[in-house]
Amino acid sequence: MIRDTIKKTAIAGFVFTVLISCQHRADTIPAGKLKKVFNPFLNGAWVKTEYIHDITKTKSPHKSSKTLNGIVSFIIDTATIRGDSMFLSSSIGNHEGMNFLLYFKQGEQPNSLLTNIHDDANPANSFELGYLVNSNDTSLILYHYDENKKLIAKKEFTKVLRNQSNDVITYGLQYIVNKKLISGTYKTRDLTGGETTLQFTDKGKVTGFAGFKTYYVLTDFFAEPGASPDRICFDIETDTGKWYEFEIKDNILYLFEAQENNPGKSRQRNSPTYKLIKQ
User: Fold this and answer.
1) DSSP code of 215?
2) What range defines the domain where residue 69 resides?
């Protein structure tokens, strides 16, 4: 009887020890080791994977803006590591900026780290940032937990730039939109039948088009009415800047004269001003 009691007590103590060990596993893995695991792939600009897939399909920033909820992009620079944490800049809904800390402390997942992201709807909830390795690349996963550490949701992010030369939070998203929709070589004809070659780059540069040097695709529709058209601006924030509405069909980029957007009022689009054929 005593032997059985001792045996049961030992087993209970072992189970308790295992549970405590699991509960505090974040403290058992040195931050230095976690840094070695995460640092090789963290650097760069990351954009919500769902948005990238959707905009590739719709060819329309406005139609795909429905996927831009919560954190949609962020910049990671491992040079900001201070001690056991690092500073990240993120974009909320592609409209507002938010900074948060990533801690080199293991989270609920064996491949995730703790963050100080705040859940306004429920302060007891928490977020962790982890990684997922697939056959082609490594994705980052933002895990959302309730107060009981039950997974509520998770969101995948794709690296679009290995290094970002500026600190503009939305740059990565703009870059991937340019790359997926606009970037490339085009041909067009003027009224006399002469052919012109245009070049659009991933970084928002343009050559061969009416003397313009840059282009900017509108991706933030927070203040836009529901039926807003897709828009592109050449040489934005300059005296010679010019907005056009645009539409992409097959390999053709159609540019239309921009019209004032009046909610509730029907719009009739004129014939395209330019028809740019991607080569």
Assistant:
1) E
2) 27-169
